[in-house]
């Protein structure tokens, strides 16, 4: 009995010992498991961070490669990268990206563009000296529907898109805003599609601009940027070729026969740009200061005649020109005479011979349909096709939509440009002394002391409508050369419902050819001819729209409608008075235009014309 109890006690002790050992072993393995789990978690975190780092590095490399080969479209030798090469790079980058949709493409099937249509559009632009946006007549007015543009590729530039770093709440707000934009775009597209473009051509253009802005806003929100398709590239190249041919044709010399008294002024011109005495008096007899030639000549003597803007004062002098302290006597004499240093008298006379040409009916009026003008320009058929194609109104009513220049008198006239040189001169009071003030439809109120308040005629453009520089003026008498003229010359859709003065497009085209020739001679004399590449596209330098507008108003002076014409805000460089940092495009040889303005002033060859502001 005692032995049995002892064996039971021993077995109990052994089982307790085994249980203690098992618990100790379990704790040991538990601790080891925790250690292994934490080690694995740490290792996983490190590997995840390393993978993210590798993806970010590859993405950054993709950005650098894309921006160098796609955005700039230039290779290491400064040559444009071809379209096929850019696509190869784009596809290679798409294959390399590992961040989901780093570069998502919507490559729409490119629509075929009729070659004849593209050629005719490009030819029209070429005839207009590089597709000047201000032309407002034949080509634009005769069309009821805008030409359909080829589709464009949309490429996502993730590096430029804030959406990659947005929070969940920011993404939700962005998507909500994009939904609203899509709805607005759809409504605007329906409105544009239903508009009668023949009746409300100006409003139709404004709605198209608004639609484009909404679409741009939506693309920006989604991180997309438009890139021209191969069809667009082909049309642009074709357009450039036609412009080049038109340019080469325009610069060929042609014989210009002037009236004897005008020819005498050209022959006796001595090269001086000194303003006449009447330019030193305002319309009310106050003393004013026109643009003097000496100040500019001295700048040119210092070496600024070789194609550099007169306002870039910080540029170093070229070594080929003598410094100010060592100028020769010849340089000083020519500066005192007011002549442009790099223009000889013969070259100046050659330009003046063209600048003295007259362009009757550059502004359309009732007397433009005489036999001589019909024989040369067929103005009546152009006028009716452009503005009365579907009209049932009779000829007399159509003709009477134009002004009678025999009766119209405007008094003293002023043209206010957008050049920033008006800010220093503060010409507001002087400008408002004129009987008839013409200006662009841009902001004026913060700059009244510089540009004045009065607005009798308005150059109606659409560039700044819908921006903070939008116009705050309307014309009291005429809308002059509006971008879009309604059918039957109906003024209801024009600013302040005032009548339009319109270009005579066939005559305007003659002027543009001659202006191209003049500016070519000026640049040739100064050795400033340039081959331009803007945004990857070849461009030909051409006259600005303001040059044609001023020349057309000069016809009012020649016809006796204006007693004198004074120019303000037409500088030879710089920016706009409401946007000084926006410099004049290199596509326009603006210093050549300014020289011709001063030729007109100095010679009085078209009448009393004065230029103000340096």
Automatic annotation (TrEMBL):
<keyword id="KW-0333">Golgi apparatus</keyword>
<keyword id="KW-0328">Glycosyltransferase</keyword>
<feature type="compositionally biased region" description="Basic and acidic residues">
    <location>
        <begin position="141"/>
        <end position="154"/>
    </location>
</feature>
<comment type="similarity">
    <text>Belongs to the glycosyltransferase 29 family.</text>
</comment>
<dbReference type="InterPro" id="IPR038578">
    <property type="entry name" value="GT29-like_sf"/>
</dbReference>
<keyword id="KW-0812">Transmembrane</keyword>
<keyword id="KW-1133">Transmembrane helix</keyword>
<feature type="compositionally biased region" description="Basic residues">
    <location>
        <begin position="310"/>
        <end position="331"/>
    </location>
</feature>
<keyword id="KW-0175">Coiled coil</keyword>
<feature type="compositionally biased region" description="Basic and acidic residues">
    <location>
        <begin position="289"/>
        <end position="309"/>
    </location>
</feature>
<dbReference type="Pfam" id="PF00777">
    <property type="entry name" value="Glyco_transf_29"/>
</dbReference>
<feature type="region of interest" description="Disordered">
    <location>
        <begin position="91"/>
        <end position="154"/>
    </location>
</feature>
<feature type="transmembrane region" description="Helical">
    <location>
        <begin position="29"/>
        <end position="47"/>
    </location>
</feature>
<keyword id="KW-0472">Membrane</keyword>
<feature type="coiled-coil region">
    <location>
        <begin position="165"/>
        <end position="198"/>
    </location>
</feature>
<dbReference type="InterPro" id="IPR001675">
    <property type="entry name" value="Glyco_trans_29"/>
</dbReference>
<protein>
    <recommendedName>
        <fullName>Sialyltransferase</fullName>
    </recommendedName>
</protein>
<dbReference type="GO" id="GO:0000139">
    <property type="term" value="C:Golgi membrane"/>
</dbReference>
<dbReference type="InterPro" id="IPR050943">
    <property type="entry name" value="Glycosyltr_29_Sialyltrsf"/>
</dbReference>
<dbReference type="GO" id="GO:0008373">
    <property type="term" value="F:sialyltransferase activity"/>
</dbReference>
<keyword id="KW-0735">Signal-anchor</keyword>
<keyword id="KW-0808">Transferase</keyword>
<feature type="compositionally biased region" description="Low complexity">
    <location>
        <begin position="119"/>
        <end position="129"/>
    </location>
</feature>
<keyword id="KW-0325">Glycoprotein</keyword>
<feature type="region of interest" description="Disordered">
    <location>
        <begin position="283"/>
        <end position="331"/>
    </location>
</feature>
């Amino acid at each position: 009995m005692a032995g049995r109890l002892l064996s039971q006690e021993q077995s109990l002790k052994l089982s307790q010992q085994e249980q203690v050992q098992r618990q100790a072993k379990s704790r040991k393995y538990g601790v080891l498991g925790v250690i292994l789990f934490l080690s694995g978690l740490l290792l996983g975190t490190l590997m995840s961070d390393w993978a993210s780092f590798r993806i970010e590095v590859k993405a950054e490399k993709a950005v650098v490669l894309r921006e160098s080969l796609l955005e700039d479209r230039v290779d290491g030798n400064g040559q444009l990268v071809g379209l096929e090469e850019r696509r190869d790079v784009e596809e290679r980058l798409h294959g390399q990206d590992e961040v989901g949709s780093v570069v998502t493409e919507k490559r729409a099937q490119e629509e075929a563009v009729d070659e004849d249509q593209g050629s005719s559009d490009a030819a029209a632009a070429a005839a207009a000296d590089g597709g000047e946006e201000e032309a407002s007549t034949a080509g634009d007015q005769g069309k009821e529907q805008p030409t359909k543009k080829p589709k464009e590729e949309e490429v996502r530039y993730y590096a430029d898109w804030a959406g990659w770093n947005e929070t969940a709440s920011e993404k939700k707000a962005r998507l909500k805003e994009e939904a609203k934009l899509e709805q607005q775009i759809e409504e605007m597209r329906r409105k544009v599609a239903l508009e009668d473009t023949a009746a409300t051509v100006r409003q139709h253009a404004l709605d198209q601009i608004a639609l484009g802005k909404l679409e741009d806003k939506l693309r920006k929100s989604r991180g997309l940027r438009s890139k021209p398709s191969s069809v667009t590239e082909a049309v642009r190249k074709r357009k450039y070729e036609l412009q080049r041919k038109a340019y080469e044709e325009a610069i060929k010399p042609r014989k210009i026969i002037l009236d004897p008294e005008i020819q005498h002024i050209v022959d006796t011109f001595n090269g001086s740009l000194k303003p006449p005495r009447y330019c030193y008096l305002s319309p009310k007899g106050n003393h004013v200061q026109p643009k003097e030639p000496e100040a500019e000549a001295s700048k040119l003597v210092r070496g600024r005649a070789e194609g550099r803007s007169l306002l870039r004062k910080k540029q170093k002098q070229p070594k080929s020109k003598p410094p100010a302290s060592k100028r020769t006597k010849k340089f000083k004499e020519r500066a005192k005479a007011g002549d442009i240093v790099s223009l000889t008298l013969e070259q100046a006379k050659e330009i003046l011979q063209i600048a003295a040409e007259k362009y009757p009916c550059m502004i359309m009026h009732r007397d433009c349909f005489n036999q001589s003008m019909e024989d040369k320009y067929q103005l009546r058929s152009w006028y009716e096709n452009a503005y009365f194609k579907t009209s049932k109104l009779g000829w007399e009513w159509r003709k009477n939509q134009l002004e009678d220049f025999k009766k119209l008198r405007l008094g003293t006239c002023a043209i206010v440009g957008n050049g920033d040189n008006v800010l220093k001169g503060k010409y507001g009071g002087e400008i408002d002394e004129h009987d008839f003030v013409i200006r662009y439809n841009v902001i004026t109120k913060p700059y009244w002391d510089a540009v004045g308040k009065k607005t009798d005629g308005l150059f109606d453009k659409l560039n700044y409508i819908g921006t903070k520089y939008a116009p705050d003026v309307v014309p009291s008498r005429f809308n002059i050369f509006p971008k879009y003229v309604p059918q039957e010359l109906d003024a209801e859709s024009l600013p302040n419902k005032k009548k339009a003065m319109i270009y005579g497009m066939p005559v305007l085209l003659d002027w543009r050819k001659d202006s191209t020739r003049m500016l070519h001679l000026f640049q040739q004399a100064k050795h400033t001819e340039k081959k331009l590449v803007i945004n990857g596209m070849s461009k030909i330098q051409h006259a600005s729209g303001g040059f044609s507008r001023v020349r057309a108003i000069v016809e009012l002076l020649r016809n006796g409608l204006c007693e004198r014409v004074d120019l303000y805000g037409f500088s030879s460089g710089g920016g706009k008075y409401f946007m000084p940092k926006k410099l004049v495009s290199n596509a326009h040889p603006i210093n050549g235009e300014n020289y011709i303005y001063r030729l007109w002033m100095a010679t009085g060859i078209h009448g009393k014309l004065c230029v103000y502001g340096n």
